[in-house]
Amino acid sequence: MSDTRLYETIETAPRPAFTSILRGFGGLCPSCGRGRIFHKFLKVSDTCPNCGEELFHHQADDAPPYFTIMIVGHIVVPLMLWLELDYLPPLWVHAAIWPTLTLLLSLWFLPRIKGAVVGWQWALRMHGFDGVKHDD
Questions:
Q1: Which of the 8 DSSP states describes residue 62?
Q2: Using H for helix, E for strand and C for coil, what is the string for 77-103?
Q3: Deepest of 16, 44, 119, 123, by most Cβ within 10 A of its Cβ?
Q4: Axis-axis angle for helices 91-123, 63-87 (nearest 10)
């Protein structure tokens, strides 16, 4: 009639979300914290070179650029307003400082935030990180 295995749940040990996010932010494997998560600037390795944890399941998509824009904007805009209102510099000063600072901050934050998102997904067992083989 009906298969009772469909309704069974598998109890799994919780993964430490905060630790996994910090490891990912540092560019390390969310599982072991030793292996590098990236093998290129933003290309996540398929597996951890240290512990062999599969990392290809991640689906970071648009979250890292979104969070990067939000964070960098919250840093640059107040600084820009502070400089303008307190010192009234010439326009060329703004043109030299803000695009450069925005680019540097974006390039620094983007891989770290992507690593944090992958670590978060791993900790919550999202997108295939649950260890269960699914028949698609």
A1: T
A2: HHHHHHHHHHHCCCHHHHHHHHHHHHH
A3: 119
A4: 150
